[in-house]
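Request: Could I get any protein with tokenized structure?
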Amino acid sequence: MNEARQSTQEAEWQRWRGVAELYHAYFTGLILTMVTRRGTSDAAEFVFRLFRRQQQERFLPGLEKLGLTHLPPAVAAAQYHYLSNWIGGVHVEYMYETDRKAWIRYPPPRWIWKGTAICGVPGEVSRAMLRGWHANNGVSLGNPRLGFVCTKQTVDGQDGLEGYYCEYDHAIDADQRLVFARHLEAPLSDPALAPALPVSSWPKPRLEKAYRNYAMEYVRTAAPVLVQLLGPQEADHLLRLTGKLIGMQYFDEIARAFACDKGDSEAFAAFLHALFEAQGDSAELSRSGDTFEVRQQTWKLMADVGDYHPVCASALQGLCEGLAAACGRRIGVTMTASAAGLAPFVWSIG
């Protein structure tokens, strides 16, 4: 690969990572919005439904994609968490003990609760994530003996989230699929013994795109789950509010990847156009006098969501409003959607 092409590709990957950072922040922010605006119980129910939906959609196809289907259930489940999170930039440790007992550990700092966000996450919300995903892997595998034993939770002040998949000698009840054993501690990890992706089928470009998509997928799942849980009116308010807050807070950080400085409507229109393309969508930029228009032809993130509701677009609308506010105090942005609330979206900036 020549230097010019390499430089172009590296710049594209930086933009992809900027998109990942923005969607990652939105996802964490939405959970904190639920905690602060709706309370711990509603936030925990939201997180449970979100992770259960992702588990049902992603776990079995992921085992196939990662080449883990031949492994014993406990080992396959643990290696899935290790590899799938590694692709998304999440630090996870894997420790094999036996074919029926395999550990995973998410050491600090936690990806999902980045920075100071961890101080706003109740233990009940973190437990809901385990109930939603880890406790259901045995069900998905058709193995009624597989459960997850959690030994630590970071949000409770312990030095990481850890636990092990255990295949018992007998079938376990639903309330035994997730249990806690705080008196136990994971063994130390040896990176040399951890599973690895085959380089031939996971080249750098594929990994970079998967890194971006990992964060985006959480928002794809979260928006329709919130609509179903709270109803369109309340979900509309919270999706848009979270987007605006995150957009304002993260513009400076994200804009660096796009070589965009704070400025006027023209600068923001160019940034928004580049942002849509970096998240995998087709977009066109035009100008009429002092007004700029970005026509977003696709929104691939939500294109095939079966229970998509037009309110889901409030997440993207809020993000763009927040980004505009941080780019320039007097920059206004309005979005017009198609009749079904899907793309094409027309963004007017002026």
In short: The first helix runs from residue 3 to 38. Strands lie at 93-98, 101-106, 146-152, 161-167, 178-180, 283-288, 291-296, 333-336, 345-349.
